[in-house]
Amino acid sequence: MFPLIRVQDIADILIMSFLVYQLYRWFRNTKTLQILIGLGSLAALYVVTKNLGLFMTSWILQELGTVFFVLIIVIFQTEIRQALYRFSLFRNLFGREERGTSVDFLQFSTTVFTLAASRTGALIVFQRDEPLDEYLLHGVPMDSLLSGQLLSTIFQNGTPLHDGAVLIKEGRVAQASSHLPLSTNSDLPQHYGTRHRAALGLTERSDAVVVVVSEERGAVSLVKGGELEPVRTPELLAEALNGLLSPTVQNSGTLGNGIRQTFFADLRTKALVILLITSAWFMITGRQEEIITVTAPLRFHNLPEKLALIKSDPDTVDLQLKVLSSLIPTPKGSELVADLDLSTIKEGTTGITVKNGDIKLPLGVIVSAVTPTTITVTADRKVSRDIPVKVKTEKYLPGRRRLRSLRAQPTSMMVEGPQRVVDRIDALQTEAIDLSGITQSATLEKKVNSPDPSVRLLQGEKVSVTIEVSRKQ
User: Fold this and answer.
1) Please, are residues 428 and 408 in contact by the beta-carbon 8 Å criterion?
2) Are residues 112 and 175 in the same domain?
3) Please, which residues have CB within 8 angstroms of residue 420's CB and are 6 or more apart in sequence?
4) How confident is the model at residue 255 (pLDDT cuts 50, 70, 90)?
5) Which residues, 6+ apart, have CB-to-CB distance to 134 below 8 Å?
6) Rounded to 5 degrees, what angle do the CA atoms 39, 43, 44 make?
7) Residue 403's domain is classified under what CATH number?
8) How much is the pTM?
């Protein structure tokens, strides 16, 4: 029987589908996705073996899961940082609002195709929202207007800066001769050289747009999102760059078309992701209708300073729990506690209502019912009193020995507790001393027993007991 689907559940599925699809888009052309699929397969295998009762296999996979978690953090630290940056909802609020000098993309594209016609290799990076400082190495800083003459000079064979990439940032040339990270995708065609692998490597890690001119083939390519697309004419390149890099003001019709196009793009992959997330949701929430009953002890806090707690009736509650997932282990009574607030109680007997919020529960477990719903607590005025200490003994001294004296130091101790309990205490007793093992005078340290759980000893729990023994004549 499937659990009842709420509006929150639909939102849960859609949010997770969006996150998973975004991760797929970012990493689909990298080895990262293949590794994540492998880890996901192991996780699915763990769930299957656990539900089938294959204890050894599920235990091994569970233990390996801890190791894999550490490995993921170490191996994918760059990808994790990149994903967190892309998911940040506030990065655009604190980013640069000024975009710098606008770029004449048609003039730029004409220069690029001129370089291609002369078989002059080029690698040009356009920075968008995400910073690229950590990916660009050994670059020569520049701050120049972007022009065709400057690009032709930089990439001319034999010039000091021709080997490497040029960074275009806010419409200006920011760096030249920069080294980019190479793509680790093993499925790239053999004719892709270092420039193409560098362009793919950078766009796999960021939202940058890269233009590549092949020195061997004289071809121009546009690279974004880890995908390389050949471009045939300057006009097509200018149009593509203008759409990717220029801020545009859209009217309502254009905005509607853009939203529609974004929604229906890559529809098959999106549908598959939603199907997988929905299946996972049903599997995870497969125990929503199962109710279990456990017994939890009571714990109290915020007892008024002038009061002392005598007893509670009862001292445990029965909890009916609903476990929301088959992946969540069934909680035990020893793992749960009902923590009640006593700040409103008065001297005498008071009823305290047990609320769901008083139960400390693990994630994925909710309280369906509590029995009983009201706990009766009895409190009395707190008092302190000095009470004599009495040394307790058992058995007799061995041989012809007699007990000359038995003294406790201190002879009395201060106690604190409910008045009706403290008033009934005549003396405090120590732990029993076995006299059969005493052969000579000695001084022992013994614990003083509290006469009632509601009474507290204020001067520690131990006293020094002096035993004086002599021989009978």
Assistant:
1) no
2) yes
3) 310, 380
4) very low
5) none
6) 115
7) 2.170.120.40
8) 0.47
